[in-house]
Amino acid sequence: MSTGTPVRSSQRSVRACTACARRKIRCSKTIPCTACVRLNRASSCQREQVVVVTRKRGHDADTTGLENGNNSPLPSLSDSDQTRDVPPGDPYSSSEAISNNLVVEGASAVLYPEPRGPVQEHVLSDRSGQGRQQTLTSPPAADSRLTSDRAAALEFLTHGRRNVINQFAGRQDTAESPLSLNSSNVEERWDLFFTEQNSRTLLSLHQSQLSWMHCAVHMPTFRREFEENLVRRECNRSWLALYYAILSQTMYHIDDQHLSSLPQPVNANADASFVLFNKSIEVLFRANFMDDHSIYSVQAICILLQVAHHFDKSDLICILISTAIRIAQCLGLHRLGPDRAISEGSTSSINESANTDRELKKGIWWFLVRYDWYQIPFQNTCQVHPSQFSTPMPTNQPVAAQQLASDGTPNMDEAYTSTSWANYLNHFSVLIWKHHDRMFKTGHPGNSPESIPKLYEEVIRADEEIKASYVSLPPSLREVDMPQDVPTADGLPIGLMPGLILVCTAHKVLGVHRHFQLSGFRDRRYAFSQFSCVSIAERSIAAIIDWPDTLQSRIARRMWTTLTHVISCCIFLAFALLFKSENTLMHDWVKIRRYLQLGKEIISHEEQRSSLARRGVRLLGAMMELEATSECSVDLEAEIGNLIRCVTVADENYLNMDATDPHHIIFPYSQDLWESFINDAMASDFFGV
């Protein structure tokens, strides 16, 4: 800019570029910004130079400054400033309050950009002539004012943390940065793997048939980025890893028969999904994702989770999810702040782009949260604590598509949307975390005789909470006896959703009773566990066995969560048969045996594609054979222990297993439960023997 151009004065520094300000569009506030890069005007992207001045202080402030020996008044916060700037107290300080704060009701909200910091520091008022001249000649990229946030983060500047550097440099977080062709994370002439038309077809199928599983990618945006990268034929490596991950999930869940019947058939090798999975992992590490943080890396890991357990990669994806949580925290996805209510007369179209971006980040963060909280039984801990993040749950559907009730308020309980499944799991994950938090406070892990009754009270409490949450669902998501020929909207499995939700609920009920599984068959004090788990396991298998043979039902059966949930239900039914001689409770053993066989048949359909299904079929088959001869067994627990060992060490030509990984696939609960079968030192008070 020419030095002769007049420089205007302003109380705020300019963050939007000149082109975006002139066109009155939202600017990403980076140099170059997203809009200028898209329009090939990156070289001319710049901000207007302004002189940052402050509002005149009153006489009292000037007097205070003079009394302290300064020419300019000291910065101070008035009562109104403190009320405006200081954030409210943390509402997530206890597990009892979590349901009222983290479980955000779906009827929210037009969303607005989050505040920059908890306290906006007042700046010095009038500067000297020399200071003003320095302001005129300083680069416009950064805000020269020092705030409390920056002062607190100053000591970490030497660590080179990018979120701290961006804060001091006046740049947005990496999570909001556009694709940068100047970054070292660039791969030229990227491999499409398929033809352009086939790739477009697969991405379209993923958007319509599979995106409801995760809600971690906004597919219209991703497909637009795909077309942009086709023109350039060069792309960000983290984005490329996400591309391969999406194709891998699509190729696994969409059967070959449907792909070959499309107007533009997609013909690929049967191992294409596994090859794409490996390519995504390879590109992630080539992108140095653990050092060069990108929201694309987090999204790629979320998508890879959908197929990792099928490919015998449970250990790998467990570590990748842990890494994704830390990356998401570095990108600030856990600190998005609460939603704002819709103001009267406001229109959502004005902030539609910002709303979509915010909802996407909320969906990514809660994907990681719920998986972390569901994995507590595996690793007996969690990495995310509710008191350490402020990101609310996503709304039930995009703001632009919200249905309004007669009074003008959002009414999102009327219809099933693409985010309903994820939000249902989000609410369940909150209940699971609360349960484990209460169990820990009561004395778990431990087998103290004094704490056992209290632990069981918490188990019954969690059972009631989960079932109450299920009963509160709309009938369209809960009544499994409704006709299954309900038309789908945009590929959503509306007719199948009651069955999916019921089997998911059953898995959570089994999870909270896992500490009392054996004692439920032996001690009448814990018989409620047996009744509760057997009944819901039978209902769950019955709900999904009669699904029609459609594309949506085949997709739902191939989900790793469906297979895991069915295996859990079948294992409990097998326990009921194995221990039927040790309890006098009334059950229809023929009916239980029939549902066990039906559950095994559901899993066997995916035996050729999924290591999860292969191990499940092998385990259930062995337990059923043992049940047929259990009456002749002298030591049933020893027999079960030997059976588990045999299944664990079993090796097949197409399955490469090590000594530890099978525990993550075979056992739907923690290994300590299974070790109790062969542990002679089992606490007698705990199991009531």
From TrEMBL:
SMART domains xrefs: GAL4
CDD domains with a match to the protein in the record: fungal_TF_MHR, GAL4
InterPro entries: Sec_Metabolite_Reg, XnlR_reg_dom, Zn2-C6_fun-type_DNA-bd_sf, Zn2Cys6_DnaBD
Cross-referenced PANTHER family: UNCHARACTERIZED TRANSCRIPTIONAL REGULATORY PROTEIN (PTHR31001), ZN(2)-C6 FUNGAL-TYPE DOMAIN-CONTAINING PROTEIN (PTHR31001:SF76)
The UniProt record lists the keyword Nucleus: yes
Segments passing through the bilayer: 559-579
Species of provenance: Clonostachys byssicola
Major localization class: nucleus
Protein origin, superkingdom: Eukaryota
Pfam families: Fungal_trans (PF04082), Zn_clus (PF00172)
Keywords: Membrane, Metal-binding, Nucleus, Transmembrane, Transmembrane helix
The Zn(2)-C6 fungal-type domain, residue ranges: 16-47
Compartment(s) where it occurs, according to its Swiss-Prot or TrEMBL record: Nucleus
GO cellular component: nucleus
GO biological process: DNA-templated transcription
Name of the protein: Zn(2)-C6 fungal-type domain-containing protein
Region annotation (Disordered) ranges: 55-99, 119-145
Comp. bias regions, Polar residues: 65-80, 127-138
Molecular function GO labels: DNA binding; DNA-binding transcription factor activity, RNA polymerase II-specific; zinc ion binding
Keyword Membrane found: yes
